[in-house]
């Protein structure tokens, strides 16, 4: 059917900030969709609050709005732009929810806006539990039996009907507290009784437990002509019970016979047809491992993380085609972009195995609960492709960048711990399973513990068994070949053979054991394809043809994790585009299936590979590029630079030596001294005693951190000697090999700069000022552009230092510098000789395509030639705020207080004409509800009390009620501020936790007493606030900023233009 | 044990043997289905062929009691990237290897099947041999070039004698050219009173059974190798409703005056889109054919193209303009593959009923 002519303008809703459960996949989907709609000649208006996305580039849509994704703001855009239609199915749950809100608020009807893709009714049918059950019953599709019960008798009679095991979920308790699985009447009585007690409404949901079923997903598409296809099916290695986002997933399914495959395929197609979806849809099913019996678990009537994975796993661009279907095109008239010859209406055939492994933030959040269940905890994922399952799995493991190159566990563990970790799934279960097999535990036993299909356990066992073979055959070429076919890394082999990784590499090269590259072509080679999308494997025929054009390799940034998010993918993509513009062939290596950079249409060649030295070198050996760009792939790429250079690969841009001068503390200190640029005093301590002396010498408070990187154990600010001793004892192990760095902690304003240097000229697009004082990680701070409180002198000083540093460090490309202003003096905190988190934000607001310019400079152009010169670009109009977004509600046991370690998962932008309006938007977009009145609950540390008084007074003056714990209350009373005392945690009800739970406070301000003790009262207060969705501010600066916004709202007419000092 | 696959173009692959260690020769074809190897290896249409599966892991769910499409497999060999020796599925009874040993069929694992597939794609299907390592490649190539592919596959796989599969519904005579069980299953599901006849049944023999409808099954090889069937079809067209699948479709076309030709590498897999021309709707179908009815040859016939392969435009379905008869090139009985086209059997039932009704009108 031809595309629709009755619509011209389409509003696309993005998914907003990156949070756990909603990550870069929607930038990929949204970008594809916008481009697809433009390609069809529609005018595309995009709204998204996330500045770190490709989709919010002005080239992607005709009009881009970076505004909060709330009813308030999107309604405004609709009223102003009057689009004919809205496409909400590409913006994740956020987009879908917003569309429902807009429809319910009558805005869509009022403005005559049609919902494309999935109709409102279908969204509701898929999302609403009862409507969904009704639909499934109508279709005859089984859903797990469930019932809401109010008494033990009701529970017993439900179980009589459906049998054990059942899951009990008490209503309205957080994170399922009080629930559990019952396998007999005794447990039922116990769990239901306590569940009813814990539930504030005295009810529980009882559901038939299908834990242990195989979890299978189908990605299906349908068009307006009712053509419906399966793009990909996937099998979770982890059985039902673990969120699919947290499961290890393989594609296609491995243990399903054709009958089972078709059974579930039929069910999935029936569902998408019944919902009338025009576009993509994800169906999750549970299949009994002992019969043909199955259940439908969930349906997502939109593109999703799984559809991004399916797109990368098959090559089939779901989001792009879903967007075209939404405007009326049908599958049978669209060409499959991969082959360029066949039609999109077919089902991809894979001739490889894909493995996805989630990336968890537990290296950052050591205290977090690592058990996996129905709440997703992963921040990102990696995908690997191989011709055997073992190869695919091991490639995925080393793509994770958790310093693991094989199925290893860190440290000593007892057999008991192993059993426990396998029985109750956590993020490391795969590794514990391998260890159990290594210790001789049988596959049968592990199957019993984990319910993981024996097929997968057998594969893991094959890897483990082959380790012994490798160990026994040092230097054996045949064994080496076989090990490589099983996906063993050189690092793993080297360890078995007591050689260096480089020796193994050399040995292999000599023996001709190098991988070939095969194409991902959607059709298992049935049709000729030109898609330059490759993966490595150890077989005969290489399909990746090296062209005579000069090429440049760009290293991507791997999985999304805290500290290395979508911003780096943004820069990577721009770098690739710039390389193409400069006339080179752009080759990208990356392993993150969620991202735009791994869309095969972005680069000239895409290698979907782990970012380890071995895998990268294989590509380089084949392609012989003129060099490698490492500046855009975050720390992942930078970390590879030294090894690459050592193997004779040319690092383009800032040289390795200069990278090292910025990263190595001693060399950096020397450079700064030479350049005459001040930095906070600091020294390296090799013993506890030394640490104490140094701290004494430079004066408290000090910032302490280990000089080596060790998962999660990072910086802390300590205020006195006993805290330092506590830190030295508990947080680090100091010794001559592992010294600790101690720096003076300057309590001052933090300032951040990104610049581009060609070695001579240094161009600075802008300076950003942080709202939180130094000590809060820059990624977790609110940043403001242009700076609101800096004097011209300070700005000049910053420009001067930046230029000096860029020249002194001989930077060619990008650099990011963090400064602190203390007593009117500017100090350098750190220099990152690479693309930073703020590059997309700054690029967008200053209109300087930073990654593009930097890439061209890296390739040899001068800034002058590109039209830029040394100095700071004149400030843009308006004010722009970048606010962090956290995913704390999803991670139990994580302390939410801000500090030197980064904790946020994403960011939003707030832009407007004035600072307060921009800040308002930033806070709202980040998910904070700002209420003009209410109650604020204060519990602050002694060191902050003085400052808190002023803050409290201002809250009081705008009519906020003040609640405080005893200590804080006393201070406030002493300052004549009326305050209501709240009982401490352990005292009688209503105590502080009750106040939070009952929603009697709208804001909680809590500053950290000391250390990170999850048991402390402060920790419980903060968690309680997060879990009840109440903003909890742990920095007085953030609190002031918020207060400032409320004040400007409260005194609206006069206060708006009156800029207040907020520090 | 190491064994090799030698192709007539001189390429050879060394892999690990499974199943029997017989030497085997056949036409090497590829199938892109990711599941369904048990149905494929027991599909009589593969008689005389060596099949390579493009999906690398084969045998994962073992071999079970239920999923055979014939009693005796007639495939000449199976080539896979990796043969699973520890299958896992609740219905699995034994490994692929054990089954192939029992049935004396050679298999070869551990070769670059994607490379092989690409050779077939470029060269077309070609003759190949699975043999021991001591076989000389040059000699084998010469032998392969000389060897003519067989013409008697239908005779080999068709039932030797007629047999009933009783039901209380419409009487359907099913001509077995190498029938997949799936066809019989679909007819049984619809309560048909089925009588299966061998491939060389004559029109008289068919009509003597007073069928309400005749079903022409799938089968192996070149339709022109079965002239007796063409003659039979000519004798029944118009006298009884007719439904043909795959080889049955080609034989019907030949019987009605159209022509067939060999394709470069055919269609074999579970993901082939077929468009129903009248409604424009596409079904994803299971296919297995190396020959096709040529479009030009329809010109002087009373046949109408009803279905077309979306990707290469070849004929996927025909209907007789004057008589109740329709045929499809693909497999509506699936097994393996998608069941999107399953309703064609219902259409056949409807056609039978319609024909009966019209008959009654005439008699009345």
TrEMBL record, chain A:
Mg(2+) 4 binds at residues 830, 832. It catalyses: hydrogencarbonate + L-glutamine + 2 ATP + H2O = carbamoyl phosphate + L-glutamate + 2 ADP + phosphate + 2 H(+); hydrogencarbonate + NH4(+) + 2 ATP = carbamoyl phosphate + 2 ADP + phosphate + 2 H(+). Its cofactor is Mn(2+); Mg(2+). It comes from Anoxybacteroides voinovskiense. Gene3D superfamilies: 3.40.50.20, ATP-grasp fold, A domain, ATP-grasp fold, B domain, Carbamoyl-phosphate synthetase, large subunit oligomerisation domain, Methylglyoxal synthase-like domain. InterPro entries: ATP-grasp, ATP_grasp_subdomain_1, CarbamoylP_synth_lsu_oligo_sf, CPAse_ATP-bd, CPSase_dom, CPSase_lsu, CPSase_lsu_oligo, CPSase_preATP-grasp. It comes from the Bacteria. This is Carbamoyl phosphate synthase large chain.
From TrEMBL, chain B:
Gene3D superfamilies: 3.40.50.880, Carbamoyl-phosphate synthase small subunit, N-terminal domain (3.50.30.20). Pathway: Amino-acid biosynthesis; L-arginine biosynthesis; carbamoyl phosphate from bicarbonate: step 1/1; Pyrimidine metabolism; UMP biosynthesis via de novo pathway; (S)-dihydroorotate from bicarbonate: step 1/3. One of its GO terms (biological process) is glutamine metabolic process. Residues 1-131 form the Carbamoyl-phosphate synthase small subunit N-terminal domain. One of its GO terms (molecular function) is carbamoyl-phosphate synthase (glutamine-hydrolyzing) activity. It catalyses: L-glutamine + H2O = L-glutamate + NH4(+); hydrogencarbonate + L-glutamine + 2 ATP + H2O = carbamoyl phosphate + L-glutamate + 2 ADP + phosphate + 2 H(+). It is an enzyme of class 6 (ligase). It comes from the Bacteria. Its EC number is 6.3.5.5. InterPro entries: Anth_synth/Amidotransfase, CarbamoylP_synth_ssu, CarbamoylP_synth_ssu_N, CarbP_synth_ssu_N_sf, Class_I_gatase-like, CPSase_GATase1, GATASE. Keywords: Amino-acid biosynthesis, Arginine biosynthesis, ATP-binding, Glutamine amidotransferase, Ligase, Nucleotide-binding, Pyrimidine biosynthesis. SUPFAM superfamilies: Carbamoyl phosphate synthetase, small subunit N-terminal domain (SSF52021), Class I glutamine amidotransferase-like (SSF52317). Residues 1-170 are annotated as: CPSase. PROSITE patterns: GATASE_TYPE_1 (PS51273). L-glutamine binds at residues 45, 219, 221, 247, 250, 288, 290-291. The active site is at residues 246, 331, 333. CDD domains: GATase1_CPSase (cd01744). Small subunit of the glutamine-dependent carbamoyl phosphate synthetase (CPSase). CPSase catalyzes the formation of carbamoyl phosphate from the ammonia moiety of glutamine, carbonate, and phosphate donated by ATP, constituting the first step of 2 biosynthetic pathways, one leading to arginine and/or urea and the other to pyrimidine nucleotides. The small subunit (glutamine amidotransferase) binds and cleaves glutamine to supply the large subunit with the substrate ammonia. Belongs to the CarA family. NCBIfam families: CPSaseIIsmall, PRK12838.1. This is Carbamoyl phosphate synthase small chain. It comes from Anoxybacteroides voinovskiense.
């Amino acid at each position: 059917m031809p595309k629709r002519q009755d619509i011209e303008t389409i509003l696309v809703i993005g998914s907003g900030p990156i949070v756990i459960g909603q990550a870069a996949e929607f930038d990929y989907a949204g970008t594809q969709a916008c481009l697809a709609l433009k390609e069809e000649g529609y005018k595309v208006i995009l709204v998204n609050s996330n500045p770190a996305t490709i989709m919010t580039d002005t080239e992607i849509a005709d009009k881009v709005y970076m505004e909060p994704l709330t009813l308030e703001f999107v309604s405004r855009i609709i009223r102003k732009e009057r689009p004919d239609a809205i496409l909400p199915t590409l913006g994740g749950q956020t987009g879908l929810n917003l569309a429902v809100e807009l429809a319910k608020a009558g805005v869509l009807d009022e403005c005559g806006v049609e919902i494309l893709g999935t109709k409102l009714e279908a969204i509701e049918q898929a999302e609403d539990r009862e409507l969904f059950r009704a639909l499934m019953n109508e279709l005859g599709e089984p859903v797990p039996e469930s019932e809401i019960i109010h008494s033990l008798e009701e529970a017993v009679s439900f179980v009589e009907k459906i049998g054990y095991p059942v899951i009990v979920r008490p209503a309205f308790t957080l994170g399922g507290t009080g629930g559990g699985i019952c396998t007999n009447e005794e447990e039922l009585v116990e769990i239901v009784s306590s569940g009813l007690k814990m539930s504030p409404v005295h009810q529980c949901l009882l559901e038939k437990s299908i834990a242990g079923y195989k979890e299978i997903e189908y990605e299906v598409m349908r068009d307006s002509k009712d053509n419906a296809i399966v793009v990909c099916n996937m099998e979770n290695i982890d059985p039902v019970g673990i969120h699919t986002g947290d499961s290890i997933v393989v594609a296609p399914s491995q243990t399903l016979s054709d009958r089972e495959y078709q059974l579930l395929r039929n069910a999935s197609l029936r569902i998408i047809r019944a919902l009338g979806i025009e576009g993509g849809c994800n169906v999750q099913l549970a299949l009994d491992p002992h019969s043909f019996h199955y259940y439908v678990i969930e349906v997502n009537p939109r593109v999703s993380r799984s559809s991004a994975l399916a797109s990368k796993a098959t090559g089939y661009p779901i989001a792009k085609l879903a967007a075209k279907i939404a405007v009326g095109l049908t599958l049978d008239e669209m060409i499959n972009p991969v082959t360029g010859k066949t039609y999109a209406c077919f089902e991809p055939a894979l001739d490889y195995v894909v493995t996805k492994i989630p990336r968890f933030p537990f290296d950052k959040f050591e205290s977090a609960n690592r058990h996996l269940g129905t709440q997703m905890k992963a921040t990102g994922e990696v995908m690997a492709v191989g011709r055997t399952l073992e190869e695919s799995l091991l490639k995925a493991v080393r793509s994770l960048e958790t310093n693991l190159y094989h199925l290893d566990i860190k440290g000593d563990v007892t057999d008991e711990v192993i059993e426990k970790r396998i029985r109750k799934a956590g993020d490391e279960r795969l590794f514990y399973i391998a260890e159990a097999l290594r210790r001789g535990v049988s596959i049968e036993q592990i199957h019993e513990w984990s319910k993981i299909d024996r097929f997968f356990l057998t594969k893991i066992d094959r890897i483990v068994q082959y380790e012994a073979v490798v160990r026994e055959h040092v230097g054996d070429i045949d064994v080496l070949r076989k090990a490589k076919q099983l996906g063993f890394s050189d690092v793993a082999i080297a360890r078995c053979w007591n050689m260096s990784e480089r020796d193994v590499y050399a040995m292999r090269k000599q023996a001709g054991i190098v991988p070939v590259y095969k194409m991902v072509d959607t059709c298992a080679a049935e049709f000729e394809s030109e898609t330059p999308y490759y993966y490595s494997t150890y077989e005969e025929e290489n399909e990746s043809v090296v062209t005579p054009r000069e090429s440049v390799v760009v290293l991507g940034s791997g999985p999304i994790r805290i500290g290395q998010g979508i911003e780096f993918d943004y820069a990577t993509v721009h770098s690739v585009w710039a390389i193409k513009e400069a006339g080179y062939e752009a080759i990208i290596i990356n392993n993150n299936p969620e991202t735009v950079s791994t869309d095969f249409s972005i680069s000239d060649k895409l290698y979907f590979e782990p970012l380890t030295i071995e895998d990268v070198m294989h590509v380089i050996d084949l392609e012989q590029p003129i060099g490698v760009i490492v500046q855009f792939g975050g720390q992942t790429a930078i970390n590879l630079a030294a090894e690459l250079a050592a193997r004779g690969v040319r690092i383009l841009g800032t040289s390795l030596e200069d990278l090292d001068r910025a990263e190595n503390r001693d060399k950096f200190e020397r450079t700064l001294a030479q350049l005459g640029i001040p930095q906070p005093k600091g020294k390296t301590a090799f013993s506890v005693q030394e640490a104490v002396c140094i701290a004494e010498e430079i004066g408290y408070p000090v910032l302490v951190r280990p000089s080596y990187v060790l998962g999660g154990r990072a910086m802390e600010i300590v205020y006195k000697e006993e805290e330092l001793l506590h830190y030295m004892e508990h947080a680090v192990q100091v010794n001559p090999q592992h010294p600790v760095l101690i720096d003076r902690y300057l309590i001052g304003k933090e300032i951040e700069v990104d610049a581009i240097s060609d070695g001579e000229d240094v161009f600075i697009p802008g300076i950003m000022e942080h709202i939180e004082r130094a000590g809060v990680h820059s990624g977790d701070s609110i940043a403001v552009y242009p700076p609101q409180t800096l004097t011209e002198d300070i700005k000049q000083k910053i420009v001067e230092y930046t230029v000096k540093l860029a020249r002194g460090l001989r930077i060619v490309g990008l650099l990011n510098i963090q400064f602190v202003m203390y007593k009117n003096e500017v100090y350098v905190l750190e220099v990152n000789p690479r693309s930073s988190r703020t590059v997309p934000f700054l690029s967008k607001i200053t209109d300087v395509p930073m990654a593009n310019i930097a890439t061209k400079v890296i390739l040899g152009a001068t800034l002058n030639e590109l039209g830029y010169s040394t100095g700071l670009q004149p400030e843009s109009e308006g004010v722009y705020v970048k606010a962090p977004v956290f995913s704390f509600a999803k991670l139990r046991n994580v302390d939410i207080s801000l500090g030197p370690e980064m904790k946020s998962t994403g960011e939003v932008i707030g832009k407007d004409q004035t600072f307060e309006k921009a800040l308002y938007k930033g806070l709202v977009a980040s998910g904070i509800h700002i209420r003009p009145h209410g109650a604020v609950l204060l519990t602050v540390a002694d060191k902050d009390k003085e400052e808190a008084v002023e803050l409290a007074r201002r809250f009081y003056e705008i009519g906020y009620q003040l609640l405080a714990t005893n200590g804080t209350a006393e201070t406030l009373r002493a300052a004549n501020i009326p305050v209501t005392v709240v009982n401490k945690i352990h005292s009688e009800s209503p105590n502080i936790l009750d106040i939070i739970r009952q929603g009697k406070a709208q804001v909680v301000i809590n500053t950290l007493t000391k250390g990170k003790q999850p048991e402390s009262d402060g920790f419980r207060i903060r968690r309680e606030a997060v879990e009840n969705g109440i903003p909890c501010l742990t920095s007085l600066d953030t609190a002031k900023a918020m207060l400032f916004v409320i004040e400007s709202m409260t005194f609206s007419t006069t206060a708006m233009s009156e800029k207040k000092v907020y520090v | 044990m190491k064994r090799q696959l030698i192709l007539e173009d001189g390429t050879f692959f060394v892999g690990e043997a499974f199943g029997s260690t017989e030497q085997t020769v056949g036409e090497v074809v590829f199938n892109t289905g990711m599941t369904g190897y048990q149905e494929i290896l027991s599909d009589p249409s593969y008689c005389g062929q060596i099949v390579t599966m493009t999906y690398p892991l084969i045998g994962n769910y073992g071999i079970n009691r239920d999923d055979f499409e014939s009693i005796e497999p007639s495939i000449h060999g199976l080539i896979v990237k990796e043969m699973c020796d520890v299958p896992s599925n609740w219905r699995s009874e034994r490994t692929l290897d054990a089954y192939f040993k029992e049935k004396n069929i050679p298999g070869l694992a551990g070769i670059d099947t994607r490379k092989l597939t690409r050779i077939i794609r470029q060269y077309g299907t070609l003759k190949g041999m699975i043999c021991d390592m001591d076989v000389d490649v040059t000699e084998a190539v010469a032998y392969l070039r000389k060897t003519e592919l067989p013409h008697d596959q239908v005779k080999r796989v068709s039932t030797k004698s007629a047999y009933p599969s009783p039901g209380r519904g419409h009487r359907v005579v099913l001509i077995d050219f190498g029938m997949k069980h799936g066809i019989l299953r679909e007819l049984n599901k619809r309560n048909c009173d089925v009588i299966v006849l061998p491939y060389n049944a004559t029109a008289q023999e068919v009509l003597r059974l007073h069928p309400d409808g005749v079903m022409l099954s799938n089968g192996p090889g070149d339709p022109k190798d079965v002239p007796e069937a063409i003659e039979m079809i000519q004798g029944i067209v118009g006298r009884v409703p007719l439904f043909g699948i795959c080889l049955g479709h080609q034989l019907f076309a030949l019987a009605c005056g159209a022509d067939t030709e060999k394709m470069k590498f055919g269609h074999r897999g579970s993901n082939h889109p077929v468009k129903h021309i009248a409604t424009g709707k596409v079904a994803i179908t299971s296919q297995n054919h190396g020959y096709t009815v040529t479009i030009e040859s329809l010109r002087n016939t009373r046949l109408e193209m009803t279905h077309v392969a979306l990707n290469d435009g070849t004929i996927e379905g025909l209907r007789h303009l004057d008589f109740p008869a329709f045929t499809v090139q693909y497999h509506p009985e699936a097994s393996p593959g998608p069941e999107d086209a399953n309703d064609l059997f219902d259409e056949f039932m409807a056609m039978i009923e319609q024909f009966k009704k019209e008959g009654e009108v005439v008699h009345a």
